[in-house]
Design a protein that fits this description.
With about 90 residues, the chain is mainly α. It has three helices and two strands; from the N terminus they run αααββ.
């Protein structure tokens, strides 16, 4: 295999890995943000009211307040509850 063939194959692979447009990244980020906000509202037990940007009324301050409730709970690898420990 020649150097030109290797270079062409590398360029082909790189083009397959690179995002095709910035809108693809933007829509994926928006979907992730909306999903996170919705999950946060569910975890906090807040009522989710749809907004144009997040889909939820929960924000970072709500997350911090929720996390502070578990200060002092010990770490346990694979732990899933405050009674036995969190991972």
């Amino acid at each position: 295999m020649s150097l030109a063939e290797v270079s062409a194959r590398i360029a082909q692979i790189q083009s397959m890995l690179a995002p095709s447009t910035s809108s693809t990244l933007t829509s994926a980020t928006s979907a992730s943000s909306t999903g996170f906000a919705s999950s946060l509202s569910d975890a906090l037990g807040t009522t989710s009211s749809t907004t144009a940007t997040t889909g939820s009324t929960a924000d970072g301050d709500d997350l911090a307040a929720y996390a502070k409730k578990y200060t002092g709970v010990r770490y346990v690898a694979g732990g899933r509850s405050p009674q036995t420990g969190w991972d």
